[in-house]
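Handoff note, outgoing to incoming analyst
You'll be picking up this chain. Sequence as last confirmed:
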Amino acid sequence: MNLPIYQYRTNESHLDYEFISEGPKGRIKKVVRFLQISDDVYNLGFGDLDEVTREISDTVITNNKDSLKVLATVASTIYDFYGEYPHRRVFVKGNTLARTRLYRIGITNNWKEINMDFEVYGLENGEWELFQFRRNYEAFLIQPKEF
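Most recent structure output, in case you need it:
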C-alpha cells in the first residue's frame, strides 16, 4: 500500500510489533500482536501498550489524529507476518462494532492493493464469505492468495 507508515520493530518470532504514534496527544506506544488460535489461524490484536503490565489495551481511544497512518502501519505488519508465516490466516475483529466498521472501511479504501496479494473473507451471521463492499461484517479472515 502506498500510504505513509510508522517505523516499527518486531521480535524474532515476528509475532509482536511495536511502533510510536505521534500526534496532539503525544507519543503513544502501539502494539500489534499475532496470537495463534488454531493450527493455521492467528488473531491480530492491536492497541496501546501499558508500559507497567505490558498488556495491550484495545479499549483506549487515543485520538492522536493519525488513524490512517496507524492503520497503514498495522497493515504493513500483516505483510511482514506473512513473510515469516506464508501458510497462515489472520483473524481480525474490532472490540466494538465501530472498530470493526473502521477495519472494513480500511479494507474497502485499499481494496485494489489488498486484493492483489490477499483473499479477504467476512463473517456474517456465522458464515464466512468472500469480502464484498457495503456489508457489515462481524470479523475478517485474511490469507495470502497462494494459500
